[in-house]
């Protein structure tokens, strides 16, 4: 799978402490921080697929502190150097605790991998606005990706 222009994948700190670790996600002094519109959590049941969606202006930052998530990005932006590319990312603990930046106008979808739900934390630079995003069906011909494994 290819990389997507503007998408960033960064390892996150897990700090061991008595009773359980501290999991970093994003700080105001990080070069990845773009401002705060909202932070929310989304739970994904094992095998469930939430796809396809893209935001027109919003940049998202995903981290998965619980479970394992496969995130797929597809770039059909007309002026992008990675137009036509599709990329897959694994996010979650213990081996894939990372931050994924999803730029505006990039299609994304995700599914929980494994036997437990995945908990996605999204730090978005804009507050949710229902007219600021678009959705497409799982089998949309613009997105050449099949979710069956």
**CATH class placement:** Mainly Beta
User: How many E strands?
Assistant: 12
Count of runs of 4 or more consecutive helical residues: 0
Form type: globular
Radius of gyration: 15 Å
Largest sheet: 5 strands, antiparallel
- Overall mean pLDDT stands at 95
First and last CA, distance: 15 Å
The H-and-E topology, N to C, reads as EEEEEEEEEEEE
> Strand portion, in percent?
35-45%
CATH architecture: Sandwich
Low-pLDDT segments, ≥5 res? none
Task: Give me the CATH superfamily.
Answer: Jelly Rolls
SS content category: mainly beta
Describe the protein's architecture and organization.
- The model has no long low-confidence stretch (mean pLDDT 95).
- Strand 2 and strand 3 (22-23) form a beta hairpin.
- The two termini are 15 Å apart.
- This protein has no helices and 12 strands.
- The chain is an all-beta fold and 149 residues long.
Describe the structure in brief.
The chain is mainly beta and 149 residues long.
Relevant terms:
mainly beta; Jelly Rolls; five-stranded antiparallel sheet; single chain
Helices, strands, pairings?
Layout: E1 8-11, E2 14-15, E3 22-23, E4 38-44, E5 49-55, E6 60-66, E7 68-75, E8 86-92, E9 98-102, E10 106-112, E11 118-124, E12 133-135
Antiparallel strand pairs: 1-9, 2-3, 4-11, 5-10, 5-12, 6-9, 6-11, 7-8, 7-10
